[in-house]
Amino acid sequence: MHHFERRDGVLHAEAISLERLAAAVGTPFYCYSEATLRRHMRVFKAAFADLDPLVAYSVKANSNLAVLAIMREEGAGADVVSGGELYRALEAGIAGSKIVFSGVGKTKEEMAAALDSGVFQFNVESENELDALNEVALSRSAVAPIAFRVNPDVSAGGHEKISTGKAEDKFGVAWTRARDLYARAATMKGVAIKGVDVHIGSQIAELAPFERAFERVADLVRALRADGHAIERLDLGGGLGIPYGEPAGGAGDPPHPDDYAGLILRIAAPLDIRLIFEPGRMIVGNAGVLVSRVLYVKEGEAKKFLIVDAAMNDLIRPALYDAYHGVKPVALREGDSEPYDIVGPICETGDRFARARPLPPMKAGDLVAFMSAGAYGAAQSSQYNSRPLVPEVLVNGERFAIIRRRPAFSEMTAAERNPEWKSA
Ligand SMILES: Cc1ncc(COP(=O)(O)O)c(C=O)c1O
């Protein structure tokens, strides 16, 4: 459930009309609903209330500092995958003791920064990384708390670019090598084994892949304990999908968090273990929209194009993963629907948000909202075609705040220099 609804025919974020925000901020812009962000985190936590897990919000989904501060207020920690994300989480006031450091390619500098912050856990993804972490920790007279991210060789379904748990994927340590690696880590003075970690992908629309992966991992926990390791934590990653509102025939609705929780309780409760989760999309996806203005309506030879002022640099999911986003006219329009290809101004054929999308007759100047754009939207945006990053706006009831402003062109070029030999 989210708080983007029509009032008198106009799409609102909580109590503010998107038309009013567009007039105040200019288009395109991202708009987030604070009530929705909080609600999703509460629903997720409530599903596991009896277990008191660490819910480490996955910063990559939406890393705006204001969003992170809301997560902190809701009691969440953070799952980070870079020094930059670690910096953001700490800046937002999230304690190192609630931060999980994931990712296949942590640098030694990033490891050092995480150790200095008192990080809760490193999710180690290779033997080389284990050696590097041990070295960094010893050089700082520290001990790094670790889990190995194991690759359970399970297909998560959905788009191959966001599936991470198959043997051919780059993620995690090979299933067959896991026990040897734990045995090796146990001999190292710079690391302390705490748990096991798994994350099999994102936008997972059914329970079956989770079930297969988690059952395998539970078996591994039992085997490792039998080997003499004190496995006290189980990090089950993120990945629970959200409804993107696809019409019949498309991806169906993903399971409710309560059903996901039921499955996990069945598998994990007998282990008597502290659970960790890294949800991202499930928290922020439906808490945000991208608002854009129609620049032109173009009658092509074969189809009708709606050319909007947002582009693939602002929201790359359709171009990158063929992802579906609902598109709604901000003001209700009369008339029979007709199919539009919705495209941006970027010089790439792939700069297309939707094909043959039925919409009522639209005209230049109309506003449209790309729904479910709160996750992997602003976070994946770029300045391609030298388009400044778009503003992000947070709505709380009748109030709004610009939580990232639109930079000036001069800010885009501020870090660039001609080489000395050119300036003479
Ligand atoms: C290690 C890890 N944890 C958590 C997440 C968050 O996933 P999601 O946004 O699907 O919940 C991701 C994203 O792919 C990830 O790579």
* Fraction in beta strands: 15-25%
Number of domains as seen in the coordinates: 2
Radius of gyration: 23 Å
Count of β-strands: 21
Fourth CATH level, the homologous superfamily of the largest domain: Alanine racemase
What is the secondary structure topology, with strand pairs?
Elements: E1 4-7, E2 10-13, E3 16-17, H1 18-25, E4 29-33, H2 34-47, E5 54-58, H3 65-73, E6 77-80, H4 83-91, E7 99-101, H5 108-116, E8 121-124, H6 127-139, E9 144-151, E10 173-174, H7 178-185, E11 191-197, H8 207-226, E12 233-235, H9 257-268, E13 274-277, H10 281-284, E14 288-299, E15 304-308, H11 317-321, E16 327-329, E17 338-343, E18 352-359, E19 367-370, E20 392-396, E21 399-404, H12 409-413, H13 420-423
Parallel strand pairs: 4-20, 5-6, 5-13, 6-7, 7-8, 8-9, 9-10, 9-11, 11-12, 12-13, 15-17
Antiparallel strand pairs: 1-2, 2-3, 4-14, 14-15, 14-19, 16-19, 17-18, 20-21
The structure holds pyridoxal-5'-phosphate (PLP).
Residues 58, 60-61, 79, 102, 199, 202, 237-240, 278-282, 375 line the site of pyridoxal-5'-phosphate.
Tell me what the structure shows.
With 424 residues, this protein is α/β, with parallel strands linked by helices. The chain folds into 2 domains: 4-31 and 286-413, Lyase, Ornithine Decarboxylase, Chain A, domain 1 (Beta Barrel); 103-277, Alanine racemase (TIM Barrel, Alpha-Beta Barrel), CATH 3.20.20. The chain has 13 helices and 21 strands. It has helices at 18-25, 34-47, 65-73, 83-91, 108-116, 127-139, 178-185, 207-226, 257-268, 281-284, 317-321, 409-413, 420-423, and strands spanning 4-7, 10-13, 16-17, 29-33, 54-58, 77-80, 99-101, 121-124, 144-151, 173-174, 191-197, 233-235, 274-277, 288-299, 304-308, 327-329, 338-343, 352-359, 367-370, 392-396, 399-404. The strands form 3 sheets. Strands 4, 14, 15, 16, 17, 18, 19, 20 and 21 form a 9-stranded mixed β-sheet that branches. An 8-stranded parallel beta barrel has the order 5-6-7-8-9-11-12-13, surrounded by 5 helices. The longest helix has 20 residues, at 207-226. The relative contact order is 0.15. The model has no long low-confidence stretch (mean pLDDT 95).
